[in-house]
């Protein structure tokens, strides 16, 4: 067997590394000039990203770091006085304690500033916030090799995210300092993970450019000697800062070659002749390496992210570009040859000035090769500079060229504009070119993972939406990709995907609207099975954007909503009738609750303008049924949500919905004694069922009272000026006075007493005004207009009190969510409720689609 040899020195050129370092430092300087002052300290490291061709075998250690010596140490214990932390094993059989470790550190003059015992790490650093503070407090962590296997669960994800995984030390060894700590401080630490990518710190911002470059080269050579198969196992190296793009410094040569079939040979020869003439005129025979003139920022961005286009999914691509016919004007690789920078410039000029279709076809083949980069060998595109030019030109000019040739204005987004041209010679000539452009862009959307590139491609593709009218299969593919990116992406990417979905629903026929709505509803169901603080904002965006989509065609949305709500009712009826564990578990789940919440928001938004009374009646019955099915104290969060839904429906529809009995049941829960312990912090907003220990805690008592007061305040605020308010508030006041007499907790007594006083003041105000009226109780119209002028003022003390209670409820939830920014992974995995496969999804999504017709 022959031994694999490293690539030539030009494969990882120091000049390439130097250019990457300079570009990153320049990018950082530009960001510092425009960035707002940051509260937290910014990351100051250079990171080297290693991508392997294959996942390392199980025998490779993924806990112990490979130490790669660097010529310039990242942490200098002698000069920089770094904060180093040591985690020791204080279990009985370890033979080491904290005092002994301190003595050893002092005697050997080891720069360890903190020692943490394993037992202390278990108890004092269990909350997420404590782990985060510990991670940020020290420059580097060391740990006894006997406790290293236990640390991943104890330390949390922050240590992995910030690349501060504790370095293994053999504390049985006598020389801790020279052979272990000093060596680790002066080395790059490589952890081979369960995937193909690994990240290594190789430099600091404070270093000189030469020092950073030497470190990068040393790390690359050291890593290549460590990884399996040496250089033969390395796919690529990239260099980046924490928030920057990854710049390629090495890329392995692909093994396969690409074939692109296509256009007539005669046209290709004409294009080549025209290109050579343009070169001769402008003296551009030599290959140029200047800056791209069209949108240089975007071109640099694409060039930097070239590697993302190479990353392919392991499974077979269901959107394969070869599923349809090959009638897209592609040329063969051998006939067309490579595209370099000067050739692309000449082709672009021919297209812009002469509308040269063969030249545009050749550019389109280069664009296709760029979009398929990684799935086929990039033999057409000569280098990354050419690669960026092609993508930039096509993104900016393709739609304008299509419209100019066909005579369609930029403002014309009617699908009829394309359908009317279907039988013309212009369209028959241009159709395969348009098809190739759309297919290649869709292929790119399905392969790239960088959200900024995806958002840019979606924005450009949206301008060409009208051309999808001629390609129904591509339109279906666009809908599927857009819905997927809308549900899985975040921020700008989700927003761009939503615009595509809304445009499809508006421009094309009603069947497309139904398809968009059904797929979006399925995606919403799939992504609302769990609610966590980090996901809450995105789930709210999905809900609001889905409602916005439904509002484009209320009649069709009404039919789909009725089918879905009826399905929710069937699930509830089964649970009420059988009380089986599986049926009840479907209802007491975030998936069911989020579906109810979605349709409550839809009805609340549109009921004033449209007749949605059947939906309103059905959803109220469902909510009341859920509250009846789960009466116990552990289900208090779910019951609180039920009352919140009813309050929202009542306020939006103007219909009185009684909620008093549901709220007062919360005060009837049997709670612990006054001396009960406070209990751990728990987020009610991210749970539908409480842990077993929580109803016995003091926090549960407080939450019951606060929730009851807040829910009643929302209810009373809506009807505080109604002529029947004194009658509405009578029974709740009786219960609250009784509760005030029985409770011995002073903080709760004050809250309840103030609420009673304000409600009594409200009752007295309404009674005085009611005594002054002259109309009969049967005069419904006069009763509805009672105190409407006073209601518009909102200056009454009790109105201000209701508002303050509601505002405090919101701030209280924010504070609680801040304390519990992330639940412990171990407990959340063990306790959160799993939805049985093919149970809830089939009931809510598939059934909804099938019954809608």
Automatic annotation (TrEMBL):
<feature type="compositionally biased region" description="Basic and acidic residues">
    <location>
        <begin position="310"/>
        <end position="319"/>
    </location>
</feature>
<dbReference type="GO" id="GO:0030690">
    <property type="term" value="C:Noc1p-Noc2p complex"/>
</dbReference>
<dbReference type="InterPro" id="IPR005343">
    <property type="entry name" value="Noc2"/>
</dbReference>
<comment type="similarity">
    <text>Belongs to the NOC2 family.</text>
</comment>
<dbReference type="GO" id="GO:0005730">
    <property type="term" value="C:nucleolus"/>
</dbReference>
<dbReference type="GO" id="GO:0030691">
    <property type="term" value="C:Noc2p-Noc3p complex"/>
</dbReference>
<dbReference type="InterPro" id="IPR016095">
    <property type="entry name" value="Ribosomal_uL1_3-a/b-sand"/>
</dbReference>
<dbReference type="InterPro" id="IPR023674">
    <property type="entry name" value="Ribosomal_uL1-like"/>
</dbReference>
<dbReference type="Pfam" id="PF03715">
    <property type="entry name" value="Noc2"/>
</dbReference>
<protein>
    <recommendedName>
        <fullName>Nucleolar complex protein 2 homolog</fullName>
    </recommendedName>
</protein>
<keyword id="KW-0539">Nucleus</keyword>
<dbReference type="GO" id="GO:0042273">
    <property type="term" value="P:ribosomal large subunit biogenesis"/>
</dbReference>
<feature type="compositionally biased region" description="Acidic residues">
    <location>
        <begin position="320"/>
        <end position="329"/>
    </location>
</feature>
<dbReference type="GO" id="GO:0005654">
    <property type="term" value="C:nucleoplasm"/>
</dbReference>
<dbReference type="InterPro" id="IPR028364">
    <property type="entry name" value="Ribosomal_uL1/biogenesis"/>
</dbReference>
<feature type="region of interest" description="Disordered">
    <location>
        <begin position="310"/>
        <end position="338"/>
    </location>
</feature>
<dbReference type="Pfam" id="PF00687">
    <property type="entry name" value="Ribosomal_L1"/>
</dbReference>
């Amino acid at each position: 067997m022959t031994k694999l040899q490293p690539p030539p020195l030009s494969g990882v050129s120091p000049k390439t590394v130097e250019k990457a370092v300079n570009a990153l430092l320049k990018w950082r300087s530009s960001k510092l000039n425009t960035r707002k002052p940051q509260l937290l300290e910014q990351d100051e490291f250079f990171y080297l990203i290693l991508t392997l061709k294959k996942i390392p075998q199980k025998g490779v250690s993924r806990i112990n770091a490979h130490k790669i010596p660097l010529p310039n140490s990242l942490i200098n214990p002698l000069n920089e006085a770094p904060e180093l932390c040591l985690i020791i094993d204080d279990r009985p059989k370890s033979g080491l304690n904290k005092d002994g470790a301190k003595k050893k550190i002092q005697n050997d003059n080891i720069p360890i500033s903190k020692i943490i015992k394993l037992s202390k790490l278990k108890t004092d650093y269990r909350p997420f916030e404590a782990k985060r503070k510990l991670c940020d407090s020290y420059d580097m962590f060391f740990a006894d090799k006997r406790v290293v296997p236990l640390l991943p669960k104890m330390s949390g994800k922050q240590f992995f995210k910030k690349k501060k995984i504790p370095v293994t030390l053999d504390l049985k060894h006598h020389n801790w300092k020279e052979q272990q700590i000093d060596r680790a401080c002066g080395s790059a630490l490589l952890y081979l993970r369960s995937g193909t990518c690994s990240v290594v710190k190789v430099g600091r911002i404070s270093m000189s450019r030469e020092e950073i470059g030497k470190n990068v080269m040393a790390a690359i050579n050291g890593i290549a000697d460590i990884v399996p198969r040496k250089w033969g196992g390395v796919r690529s190296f990239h260099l980046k800062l924490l928030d920057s793009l990854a710049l390629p410094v090495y890329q392995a040569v692909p093994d396969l070659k690409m074939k692109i079939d296509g256009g007539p040979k005669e046209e290709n020869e004409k294009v080549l002749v025209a290109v050579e003439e343009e070169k001769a005129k402008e003296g551009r025979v030599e290959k140029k390496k200047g800056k791209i003139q069209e949108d240089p920022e975007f071109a640099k961005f694409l060039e930097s992210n070239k590697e993302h286009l190479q990353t392919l999914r392991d499974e077979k691509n269901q959107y394969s570009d070869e599923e349809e016919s090959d009638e897209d004007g592609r040329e063969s690789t051998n006939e067309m040859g490579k595209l370099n920078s000067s050739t692309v410039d000449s082709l672009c000029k021919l297209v812009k000035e002469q509308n040269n279709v063969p030249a545009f076809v050749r550019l389109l083949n280069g664009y296709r090769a760029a979009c398929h980069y990684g799935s086929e060998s990039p033999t057409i595109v000569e280098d990354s500079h050419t690669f960026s030019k092609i993508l930039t030109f096509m993104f900016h000019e393709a739609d304008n060229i299509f419209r100019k040739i066909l005579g369609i204005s930029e403002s014309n987004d009617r699908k009829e504009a394309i359908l009317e041209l279907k039988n013309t010679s212009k369209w028959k000539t241009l159709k395969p070119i348009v098809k190739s452009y759309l297919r290649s862009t869709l292929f790119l959307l399905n392969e790239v993972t960088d959200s900024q590139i995806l958002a840019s491609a979606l924005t450009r593709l949206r301008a060409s939406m009208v051309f999808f009218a001629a390609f129904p299969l591509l339109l279906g593919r666009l809908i599927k990709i857009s819905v997927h990116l809308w549900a899985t992406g975040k921020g700008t990417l989700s927003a761009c995907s939503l615009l595509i979905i809304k445009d499809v629903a508006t421009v094309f026929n009603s069947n497309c609207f139904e398809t968009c709505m059904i797929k979006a509803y399925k995606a919403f169901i799939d992504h609302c099975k769990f609610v966590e603080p980090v996901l809450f904002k995105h789930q709210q965006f999905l809900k609001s954007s889905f409602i916005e989509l439904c509002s484009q065609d209320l009649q069709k949305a009404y039919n789909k909503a009725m089918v879905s709500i009826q399905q929710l009712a069937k699930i509830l009826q089964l649970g009420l009738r059988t009380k089986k564990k599986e049926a009840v578990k479907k209802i007491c789940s975030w998936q069911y609750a989020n579906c109810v919440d979605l349709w409550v928001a839809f009805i609340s938004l549109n009921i004033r303008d449209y007749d949605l009374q059947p939906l309103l009646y059905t959803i109220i019955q469902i909510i009341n049924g859920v509250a009846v099915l789960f009466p116990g104290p552990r289900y208090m969060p779910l019951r609180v949500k039920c009352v919140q839904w009813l309050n929202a429906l009542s306020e939006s529809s103007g219909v009185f919905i009684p909620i008093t009995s549901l709220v007062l049941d919360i005060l009837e829960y049997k709670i612990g004694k006054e001396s009960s312990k406070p209990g751990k912090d728990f987020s009610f907003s991210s749970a539908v069922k409480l842990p077993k220990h929580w109803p016995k805690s003091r926090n549960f008592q407080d939450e019951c009272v606060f929730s009851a007061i807040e829910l009643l305040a929302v209810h009373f605020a809506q009807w505080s000026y109604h002529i029947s308010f004194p009658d509405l508030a009578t029974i709740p006041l009786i219960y609250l006075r009784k509760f005030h007499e029985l409770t011995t907790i002073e903080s709760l007594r004050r809250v309840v007493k103030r609420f009673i006083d304000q409600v009594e003041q409200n009752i007295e105000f309404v009674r005085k005004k009611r005594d002054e009226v002259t109309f009969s109780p049967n005069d419904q119209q006069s009763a509805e207009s009672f105190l409407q002028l006073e209601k518009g003022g909102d200056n009454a003390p009790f109105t201000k009190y209701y508002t303050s209670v509601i505002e405090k409820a919101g701030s209280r939830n924010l504070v609680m969510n801040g304390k519990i920014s992330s639940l412990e992974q171990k407990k959340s995995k063990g306790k959160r409720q799993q939805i049985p496969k093919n149970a809830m999804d089939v009931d809510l999504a598939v059934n909804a689609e099938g019954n809608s017709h």
